[in-house]
Amino acid sequence: MSKEYIIPARSGIKIDVRQGQSITVIDIEGGQVVDFFAEVNGNANEFLSTGVTIDCNESLKLNAGNLIYTNLYHPMMEVVSDDVGEHDLIHPCCRPEMYDFFYHNGEGHPNCLDNINKALEEKRAVITPVNLFMHTKINIDGSISVEEPISKAGDKIVLKALMDITLGVAACSVSESKCNNGKCSPVKIVIDQD
């Protein structure tokens, strides 16, 4: 038994997941980034931390078999399988100030920070999610560049929840750069019931 959720382009959703359930995130059309955040069910003060995940995995990349950790260094999810192998762990959610800084169009622009906060009914000042399918090139000199995603239509990543968690997930709103191949599209999440 499974339950499917469609996240329309430039919007967010909240999904409760129980320990042991699998989470499949599907790029429906290809080239769409998914801002993927989570917190421990019932405790908003323990949440997904990309910094701790980088620390514990000793890698800026996320691969099958890796764990995603909370800010308190507890294993939160395991990457079971991955069609793409390219995800970003360093960029925060897009937000009005980011759109103003780069594109001068922040006022009223849909953004992942607001979409995830609205879905979770919270007001986090900053969220640094796992940016699924986002292709950030990390150069030898330390510079970075956001490139077009390599995910194709139907590509997916499968995660297993290692604790009861609440997901806050957004289909990224950036159409102004290569981030989402210059357009925004919906994504699908499938939660397999245990």
What does this structure look like?
There is one protein chain. The protein is mostly beta strands and 194 residues long. It has one domain (2-192). It contains 3 helices and 13 strands, in the order βββββαββααββββββ. The chain has helices spanning 50-57, 96-103, 112-120; strands spanning 2-7, 12-17, 22-27, 34-40, 43-47, 67-69, 75-82, 130-132, 135-138, 144-147, 156-161, 165-171, 187-192. Strands 1-13-3-11-7-6 form a 6-stranded antiparallel sheet. A hairpin with a 2-residue loop joins strand 4 and strand 5. The longest helix has 9 residues, at 112-120. 40% of the residues are buried. The model has no long low-confidence stretch (mean pLDDT 96).
State the main characteristics.
194 residues; mainly beta; six-stranded antiparallel beta sheet; 3 helices; 13% helix
